[in-house]
Amino acid sequence: MTFTIDRPEIRNAINNEVTAGLEELVEGAQHPSVRMVIITASGKQAFCSGGDLSVFHALRTEQQSYRMLKRMSDVLYSIKTLPVPVVAVVNGAAVGGGCEIATACDYRLVWDHAKCGFIQGTLAITSGWGGGTYLLETLQHDQALKMLSEAKVYPANELKDFGWATIIVQEDQDIKAFFERMKTIHPDVHRAYKEMAIRKWQKTDLQERVEQEVRRCAVLWERDAHHEAVDRFLNKTKKRNPSS
Ligand SMILES: CC[C@H](C(=O)O)C(=O)SCCNC(=O)CCNC(=O)[C@H](O)C(C)(C)COP(=O)(O)OP(=O)(O)OC[C@H]1O[C@@H](n2cnc3c(N)ncnc32)[C@H](O)[C@@H]1OP(=O)(O)O
C-alpha cells in the first residue's frame, strides 16, 4: 500500500484531513495481502513540513494541543507497529512533524536533495507526535540528542552518516532496486522480523514513552514563546503574499 501526502502547495503540511487519511491507511494495512506500506508525498520540494501552522496555530492551550498531538501520535504509533515493513520515500524536505512521520517508519529512502530535521525547537516546543521517542530508539544516543536539540535541517549525506537515512536516492532506479531486494524475501519473513521489533517495543513501554513526549510538548505549546514563534512564521508568509 502507498500513501501519498498531496498538499505540495503547502509543502505537504499535515491537517486533520491528512491525519484521517493516515488512520484509514492503518486500517487498510491490516489486510493479510498487504506486504509492505510506503509513505511518500507529492512534488520534489517537500515530503512533509509538519503540522499545518495555518490551522494548528488556533490551538492555544495545553488541552487543545494535546488532543491534536495525541491523535497524530496514536496514528504514528499504529504505523510504527504495523505488522509489515513501513518505508518512507522522502521526496523532499521533512521538517518538524514531517521528520517525525519519516522516523516512525522502518526505513527511510532519502532523495539526495532532501534536507530533514527536528526543527520543533525553533518554535519553542519539542517533538510531539512520538518522533523524538522513535529517534532515540533508532539512532546512537549522541546522534539522536544532537538531531533533536540542534533543531536544524541536515543534508542527505549527513542524515546517512547519522544512521537516519537508510539509503540516499539519486535516481528512481535506486528505489526500484531497494524494493526488488525486499521482494526476494518471503513476506512471512518480513512479518516475523517486524513482530520481533514490536515485541521489543511492547516490553520497553514505547507507547508510554510516546505519551510522555506528547504531554511534554502540550505543556510547551501553551507558552508565549511557542505562539510568538508561530506568529512570526505566519506573518512572514503574509508579508510575502498579502492575499494569503
Ligand atoms: C509536533 C509537530 C509540530 C506540530 O505542528 O504539531 C510541528 O510539526 S512543528 C514544525 C511545523 N513546521 C514548520 O515550522 C515548517 C515550516 N515550513 C518551512 O520551514 C518551509 O516551508 C520548508 C523548509 C518546509 C519549505 O521551504 P520552501 O522555501 O520550499 O517553501 P516555503 O517556506 O516558501 O513554503 C511554501 C508555502 O507553504 C507554506 N508552508 C510551508 N510549511 C508550512 C506549514 N508547516 N504550515 C503552514 N504553511 C506552511 C508557506 O507558508 C508558504 O506559503 P505561501 O502562502 O506560499 O507563502
Automatic annotation (TrEMBL):
Any GO BP: fatty acid beta-oxidation
One GO MF term: methyl/ethyl malonyl-CoA decarboxylase activity
Protein name: Ethylmalonyl-CoA decarboxylase
GO CC terms in record: cytosol
Keywords: Cytoplasm, Lyase
InterPro entries referenced in this protein's UniProt entry, alphabetically: ClpP/crotonase-like_dom_sf (IPR029045), Enoyl-CoA_hyd/isom_CS (IPR018376), Enoyl-CoA_hydra/iso (IPR001753)
CDD domains: crotonase-like (cd06558)
Catalytic activity as recorded in UniProt: (2S)-ethylmalonyl-CoA + H(+) = butanoyl-CoA + CO2; (2R)-ethylmalonyl-CoA + H(+) = butanoyl-CoA + CO2; (S)-methylmalonyl-CoA + H(+) = propanoyl-CoA + CO2
Principal localisation: cytoplasm
Function recorded in the entry: Decarboxylates ethylmalonyl-CoA, a potentially toxic metabolite, to form butyryl-CoA, suggesting it might be involved in metabolite proofreading. Acts preferentially on (S)-ethylmalonyl-CoA but also has some activity on the (R)-isomer. Also has methylmalonyl-CoA decarboxylase activity at lower level.
Compartment(s) where it occurs, according to its Swiss-Prot or TrEMBL record: Cytoplasm, Cytosol
Organism annotation: Planococcus versutus
Family per similarity comment: Belongs to the enoyl-CoA hydratase/isomerase family.
Enzyme class: lyase
Enzyme nomenclature, EC number: 4.1.1.94
